[in-house]
Design a protein that fits this description.
Elements: H1 2-31, H2 45-60, E1 63-64, E2 70-79, E3 84-88, E4 91-93, E5 99-101, E6 108-113, E7 115-116, E8 121-124, E9 128-133, E10 148-153, E11 163-168, E12 171-185, E13 190-200, H3 216-235, E14 240-247, H4 255-262, E15 271-277, E16 287-290, H5 296-309, E17 315-317, H6 327-331, E18 336-341, H7 363-378
Parallel strand pairs: 9-10, 13-14, 13-15, 15-18, 16-17
Antiparallel strand pairs: 1-12, 2-12, 3-4, 3-11, 5-10, 6-11, 7-8, 8-9, 12-14, 16-18
Helix pairs in contact: 1-3, 2-3, 5-7
């Protein structure tokens, strides 16, 4: 009888784990779909994603930290909403796969001969630049330069670029509106002490009217993991309050987290610890922790818990870095780790970062490690 009860308990745990994994996979598939258009700056992609996350918060039962869970702010961004046509030496190139337009580029319609500047760089009039790259990596710009730059994948274009025909549309939005999405599970004993879990939900959006960047690992995986943790903590309230913040505009320069730190929805001094999840969809080669050397005691606890339970294969210790949304919190004295997994597909800031290519190798182990780490910190 006892053995049967233990079996049923283990089965229940495994079923819950499978359900969480299914929820995470479903959420990643949803956030990387064309509906959200790369969770960026055209086709209302970022707004749709914020509304979706707000809806999940409400369904889970989180308390709103701001009206409709959303903390609004605005910034300037250069967008590419329409035409995105490039031909080189008479060969039509495919956006995202064969070429990208540098994010600060101005729109242009022109045909030009190209002069070779060196083995990788070419130039033509009026103000056209061409660069051959081994990997195409896109980003976000807040201003427009006085030129148009086309980056071409040299692995897919073997000729020397001699002539280019471009028709590209850009639009600078001076006051693009975005929102951080903020919710809370109130603590049962110490509600004014807060553990914080964060992830940015924005990605790069679209380049032209037909090409978008899905952003599965960066950072639909982080958002999905955050939401699964929110579900767990909503059903298992802790002594401390636990806040969940999905930031906008991380890809534009950590703008959402910077705005939040400058306009906090509860005192920053009340934060016991913050865990920022970004790029957590892999794990074949372990994971890394930024700020591990800044907070050695907390890292020692994390590492010991991982060793005891044999979860992540390897945890790499890193120092301070301004490379994700933890940064401005740390600058204000809030103890924080930025956690990301390693290994797996090399797709990053490109059109190949898709949901079907994301292994989620260490989702379950990372989930367990975060829960145990938070439990340990709240007990001390």
């Amino acid at each position: 009888m006892r053995r049967s009860i233990l079996y049923l308990l283990c089965l229940a745990v495994n079923i819950c784990s499978a359900q969480d994994s299914a929820y995470v996979r479903k959420t990643i598939n949803h956030l990387t779909s064309p509906r959200f258009w790369g969770r960026g700056y055209t086709k209302d992609g970022m707004k749709k994603a914020a509304d979706f996350i707000s809806g999940e918060y409400k369904s889970i039962g989180l308390l709103p930290l701001s009206p409709d869970y959303q903390q609004d702010f605005a910034f300037a961004v250069n967008t590419f909403p329409g035409k995105m046509q490039v031909s080189v030496n008479g060969k039509k190139l495919e956006p995202g796969k064969d070429f990208i337009v540098s994010n600060e580029s101005q729109g242009i319609r022109a045909k030009a001969n190209l002069d070779q500047l060196d083995s990788a760089r070419f130039a033509g009039q009026p103000n056209i630049r061409v660069i051959l790259k081994n990997k195409l990596t896109w980003s976000v710009a807040s201003e427009v330069a006085g030129f148009t730059e086309i980056q071409i994948d040299r692995n897919k274009f073997n000729d020397i670029p001699k002539q280019i025909n471009v028709d590209i549309e850009n639009h600078l939005i001076d006051n693009f509106k975005a929102s951080n999405v903020c919710g809370l599970v109130k603590g049962t004993e110490f509600p004014d002490s807060v553990m914080v879990i964060t992830a940015h939900y924005d990605h790069l959006g679209g380049m032209g009217s037909d090409t978008y960047f899905p952003g599965a690992n960066d950072n639909a995986a982080g958002v999905a993991t955050l939401l699964s943790l929110a579900k767990y903590y909503a059903s298992h309230p802790q002594a401390y309050s636990i806040a969940f913040i999905c930031f906008a505009a991380e890809e534009a320069g950590l703008l959402g987290s910077r705005y939040y730190v400058e306009n906090p929805l509860f005192p920053l001094a009340s934060i016991k610890f913050l865990l920022n999840l970004d790029l957590v969809g892999t794990g074949d080669a372990g994971m890394a922790v930024v700020n591990a050397t800044v907070y050695p005691k907390a890292f020692s606890i994390l590492n010991a818990l991982n060793d005891q339970q044999q979860l992540i294969s390897k945890i790499t210790k890193r120092g301070k870095a301004a490379n994700s949304d933890h940064y401005f919190f740390t600058e204000k004295g809030v103890p924080a780790f930025f956690i990301y997994t390693q290994g797996g597909p090399p797709a990053y800031h490109d059109v190949f970062d898709t949901a079907d290519g994301l292994p989620l190798t260490e989702y379950n182990d990372l989930f367990k490690l975060i829960v145990e780490f938070n439990k340990n910190l709240m007990a001390n």
